[in-house]
Amino acid sequence: MTPSGDAELRLRERLGRLSALPLLRGARVSGEAVRLRRQLERLAADTTDEDIWRSVELARHADRPYTMDYVERILDDWVELHGDRSRADDGALVTGLGKLDDRTVALVGHQKGRDVKERLDRQFGMAYPEGYQKAARVMEIAERFGFPVVSLVDTPGAYPGVAAEQHGQGGAIARSQARMARLTVPSVACIVGEGGSGGAIAIALADRVLMQENAIYSVITPEGCAAILWRDAGEARKAAAAFKPDALHCLELGVVDAVVPEPAGGAQNDHDAAAKLLKAALAESLESLDDVPGDELRRSRRAKFRRMGVFATAENAVFPN
Amino acid sequence: MAEARIDVQVEHKHAPPPPERKHPNTCPKCASHYRDDELAEALYVCAHCGHHLPMPARARIEWLADDESFVEEATDVRSDDPLAFFDLRPYAERLAEAELNTGLGEAIVVGQATLDEHPVELAVMDFAFMGGSMGSAVGEKFARACDSAAERGVPLVSVTASGGARMQEGILSLMQLPKTVCAVEELHDAGVPMLTVMAHPTTAGVLASFASLGDVTIAEPGALIAFTGPRVVQQTTREKLPVDFGLAEQNLRFGHLDAILPRGEQRPYLSRVLRLFAR
């Protein structure tokens, strides 16, 4: 096939998928739908490498709203809960209880810092095992009292330090996922910035997984991937274009259930509007899980993650033996 | 002549460090060299210094499973290339090369067997296949091993050796973490135990998912068991690393392992644990 014919075919396919894009209530009420659609169409029409990199930059934008910015705009009666009851209180992962509309929810979310001091205190949103243990403790409360779990994901990854390893970073991430796989209360996760690798999935094994329009969700940072595969961290753009961490691709691959729109130009331009859209999306997701019995929630959550992945069978393998 | 001199100089200035390419049968620690049959006979452990060399999945299964008892499952599951991933070489080419070099279809081999007459399910990883990395096919095969173990009510013995999630499948590789975690949860709900042997290296995505969820977890001496490896920790944080950073020995000291056992002692240990869990 000619290169241009190939591109056209890809474009048509993309547009076909886009028309099936689940539009959240937030998009409908705010009239964002048309704009979102237009933006996504533009994304599909362009050579996407530039747009993917733009997502990477917006997801890491210094003015992008963080978990606490959303908490104060979305939740009433917020009470932050501190400490993992074993060793420490990890500032990179915020946990607490609050009211979303009229119901109490347990919230866990990564928190980067605004200024240099806060960033250092919160390790740039990279949690220690203690952070995931704190999250597990709060999920325990949610399970006991029937509160839905809301998680907001925004981390470059789990903290890569000596103490973090000694305290069992890998095991903490595994057990945090296992905790979420056992929940019988509804859960919804939203990638609101950087969904970086194990540090992200640790709190994202949820019934509904949403992703903001300009967020990224990836197995490794673009720089990390470039350093390993290209042997040059400067090739991050190429790496991002190759592994496609943007919302549209995550939706196409079935990794997220829906894309949450952001105000024009990105969430950093209008925190209030971004919070309103996020709140509507979270509320709608929780509403859709309202009448589902706990056993059924757990069963279908596990079934959903069991289906994840794309593999071949020997008959049509790329290179059969 | 002058030109030739300049060329030589440039070459020297930019010469990469000499590649430390050792023969796979040469011990990286003491440089003792072995014939294929010697190495296999010694379970790929250096007879001179005790260093544990990587053990191919097939050899490990042949050693762990009773004679003729192994029946492989999920043999038809292979990796696909959903992102049409291309770094310095296409992913499809890397896969083909790995298949040719290892004679395996993927970085994990799963199947039914008996171990000292205890029926078990085996899930054994092979580091030689793209660094034992976990993509969709590895996740699927491990999940099917959990299904098979749960269905038959027999313990799952899993041997891990992996650099982590497979970058070439992007976010889908990350999704193999929750996928395998859910599979282990189902296994545990069925009342079936999982015994884990961590070989060198067990890192990143595999450590942060099913490898850490074993009911009993042992490791091989000197194995690197870390979510983030020493090089990245050093580069990112500039921290001074303890000498045994991330090694099995440190993990045991900090409470993340039940035991460190030389390869030769693992089979009797597993057999004893299986007896305890037998119903």
TL;DR?
The complex is a heterodimer of chains A (321) and B (279). Chain A has one domain (22-316): 2-enoyl-CoA Hydratase, Chain A, domain 1 (Alpha-Beta Complex).
General description of the model:
The complex is a heterodimer of chains A (321) and B (279). Chain A is an alpha/beta fold and 321 residues long. Chain A has a single domain, classed as 2-enoyl-CoA Hydratase, Chain A, domain 1. Chain A has 15 helices and nine strands. In chain A, strands 1, 2, 3, 4, 5, 6, 7 and 8 form an eight-stranded mixed sheet that branches. In chain A, strand 2 and strand 3 form a beta hairpin. In chain A, 52% of the residues are buried. In chain B, 39% of the residues lie in helices and 17% in strands. In chain B, strands 1, 3, 4, 5, 6, 7, 8 and 9 form an eight-stranded mixed sheet that branches. Chain B is built from eleven helices and nine strands. Chain B is of the alpha/beta class and 279 residues long. In chain B, helix 5 runs parallel beside helix 7. The chains are: A alpha/beta (321), B alpha/beta (279). The interface between A and B is large, with 62 and 71 residues. Strand 9 of chain A pairs antiparallel with strand 2 of chain B.
Fourth-tier CATH superfamily name of chain A: 2-enoyl-CoA Hydratase, Chain A, domain 1
CATH architecture field of the largest domain in chain B: Alpha-Beta Complex
> How many independent structural domains of chain B?
2
Radius of gyration of chain A: 19 Å
Protein structure class of chain A = alpha/beta
CATH class wording of chain A: Alpha Beta
For the secondary structure, the number of strands of chain A is 9
